[in-house]
Amino acid sequence: MCGICGKINIQGKEIPAELITKMTNALEHRGPDDHGIFQTSHPISVSLGHRRLKIVDLSPAGKQPMPNEDKTIWLVFNGEIYNHPKLRHELGSRGHRFCSQTDSEVILHLYEEEGIKCLEKLNGMFAFCLWDSKSQSVYLCRDRAGIKPLVYSWDGQSLIFASEIRSLLCDPAIPTVMDEEALNLYLTFNYIPAPYTIYKNIKKLESGSYLMLKNKEIFLKKYWDVNQSAGVVSSPKMEFEDCKKKLYTLMENSVRMQGVADVPLGAFLSGGIDSSIIVGLMSKNTSSKVKTFSVGFEDIPLFDETHYARQVAEFHQTDHTEIKLNSRNVLNVFTDLLDWFDEPFADSSAIPSFIVSRETQRHVKVALSGDGGDELFAGYRMYTGDYWYSRYKQIPSFMRKGLIEPLIKSIPDSRDTKSLEQMRRLKKFVAGAADTFEERFFLWNQIYPRNLREKLLKTSTVNFDSGKNMLSASLNTIAGDPVNRMLYCDFKNSLAYDMLTKVDWMSMKNSLEVRVPMLDQHIIEFIFQLDGNLKLKNGKGKYILLETFKDLLPPALHRRPKAGFEVPISLWLKTDLKFLIDEHLSEEKIKRQGIFHYEPIKNLINDLLGNRRDTSWQLWNLIVFQAWHSK
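Now predict its structure.
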């Protein structure tokens, strides 16, 4: 796990070494163990930078940028290739000789053998740049699920790339004009999906894709997708017991492969189904105690799930570390985190993710995580919402529209108590109970509804339906049952650009490598071959996952409802964090800034502080944007 950056000028103009050094140093948190730079200038200028976090082969032989034997190919690489031992053996049998035990060197030799088609054989999480001086080609490549980030800018003469936007902004030639369409998408989803970033001239490379710069042009190509590789819903039917056996084998193989490192290794343990299964498989496949880490809130029991994690730790006899936080502990990191984001990102679970990463890094250098399980096995409430909609619509329309929905909308809601949180969820359900599948899915995903975004934003140049169109396109990419279509849409969007972005940012800020075994390529492809009713059965998600691994879970988890990695943002914004509303959402500041109309913001604040309805997610979304914009 590392940080990479670089700049290429097709006219051969000199690229100052000071710039690449500055870009590389901006990524020091991603690789505090070593750094390196490569530069060449004939006939085009290529400069590559690397920050190294030593995980595999800790010797100087793993230093990057890394060349092949005759130094005609150079590589900067971020990530892990889990099948590199197998690939190394195959390449060795073909005459390739290695100078290190790194997975980076395997990529170089595999490229020598197969060109850019080498991507199809890499099983892992990765983002890398490869410079081929013989063909005068530059490749930027990203893994299938989008676990590792890569951003770039191209102005027709220079291509500049990095693991993070902060590195690109070291170059004064990069314009920093805000993209209003990206802001609209951010207000819609809480995150900015690819290819957008908050800057007009900076793009995210999409997952499962590569960019090639050749003959003074760039080309974007998708080398992998679920619907291309897995044959969604068109594969031969398997007996349920056979499906369970195959899933167990695939998961165990993935955990076994990803549990290899030359440094101390542990696991996040939230007490949820996914992380508990990962810990169970780790314990089953090692003779030593697995180091596990969980975080909870000692003064807010409603948001504390550590008792579930404790049961799993005891069940598998792990070496467990429990991080108990109070509101003051969390408040101490808010300012730091708000200042850290390269672009607006309003998933509040970034806060506990940062803290558990910080504490975990004090004990280990690599942690396995259960991320991806919800998007593969239908773990979110939204999926069950569509199941219950088919029953809800059986109620006569005049009763739904004339009695039930007005009554539900009139009742206050809040995340502060269990009963009011249930009411909030019910309100969200009826607000999204639209007639079409695409409309329902979008309404349950959105943060700001279209009419509120229109009132909020002063601009009239954006397409207020762009987020809806984006999700609709994903939903209709594959032919299949509604569950698989929803899972595919979330896999391509919220998983890559919300969940995995959060994990990468928060872990790498703490120089911790996080691996996600459930997102192994073979697991993804297999799961999308299964009918949706094996994932969502009788309104309950993760059916096949629970049936396959129930022996690895303590009994209390067999029927545990989905909780999520949430924080009491509503309570905090009304108490300890109210200063953020006063600081970032004051009428004076909003009017001076000129991006938003103040009246809808005022209504959101009054509704929250008056305990009429929970607008905390919407207000947090604006606060995060304002903090970024001020910076």
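The longest helix spans residues 482-508.
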